[in-house]
Design the sequence.
């Protein structure tokens, strides 16, 4: 499995965001540069329900423009699963439109024990990515 | 924001990272067209496959893709029929979405 370095403070921020927005799904992205995570951006979920997310499209457009200008890219896209496991749902896979990003899913299904897993989703094919706190030596 | 205005009859089109494989890696291309649909036809002639990623077969903008015209979501304007003028700026961005239910 490919390993990716997710800074511990970003992992903690995703879990905090997921807990804050539960029972709704939270969403956001992590910008990156040359393959390294640089900054986490919380984004608004336009979906009012508890079982779907759609990043606010205008917010996303404005942010991707800023990232392009700064030479950054969309390194990861995260969202939460308040009551289901940390794995991509059928809609997550069908709607995944950013093949170069890692899809991070934070599950709150087990109270007190949030789980975070990462996946590449390319043309319907899901490959798990190992998330590590430090770079391999 | 300083929008580059060109009066050469073309509009600037901002291509998102997932669609740059159609434009040879270019993040901004230029094209012509009286409306969004015509612009996408023009681009598709040079970058085959690009339009299909943005529009349904009937020409409507895909539900999970956004086209912005001078910062306004075309969905709130006239969709693919949103008129364009020289110097306009068009941006494309695929939605980030998913969920347990289907849409």
Sequence:
């Amino acid at each position: 499995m490919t390993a990716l370095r997710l800074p511990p403070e970003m992992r903690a921020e995703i879990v905090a965001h997921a807990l804050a927005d539960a029972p709704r799904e939270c969403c956001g992205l992590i910008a990156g540069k040359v393959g390294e995570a640089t900054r986490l951006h919380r984004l608004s979920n336009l979906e009012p329900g508890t079982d779907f997310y759609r990043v606010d499209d205008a917010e996303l457009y404005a942010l991707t423009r800023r990232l392009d200008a700064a030479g950054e890219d969309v390194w990861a896209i995260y969202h939460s699963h308040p009551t289901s496991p940390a794995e991509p749902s059928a809609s997550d896979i069908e709607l995944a439109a950013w093949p170069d990003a890692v899809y991070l899913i934070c599950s709150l299904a087990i109270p007190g024990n949030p789980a975070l897993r990462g996946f590449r989703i390319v043309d319907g094919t899901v490959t798990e990515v190992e998330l590590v706190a430090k770079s391999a030596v | 924001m300083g929008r580059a205005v060109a009066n050469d009859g073309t509009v600037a089109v901002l291509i998102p990272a997932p669609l740059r494989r159609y434009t040879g890696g270019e993040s901004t291309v230029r094209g012509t067209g009286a409306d969004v649909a015509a612009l996408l036809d023009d681009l598709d002639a040079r970058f085959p496959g690009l339009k299909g990623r943005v529009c349904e077969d009937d020409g409507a903008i895909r539900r999970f893709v956004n086209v912005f015209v001078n910062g306004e979501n075309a969905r709130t304007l006239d969709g693919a029929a949103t008129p364009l003028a020289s110097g306009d700026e068009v941006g494309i961005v695929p939605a980030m979405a998913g969920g347990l239910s289907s849409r």
About this structure: Chain A has a mean pLDDT of 95. Chain A touches chain B through 37 residues (CB under 8 Å). Residues 95 and 124 of chain A are 9 Å apart (CA to CA).
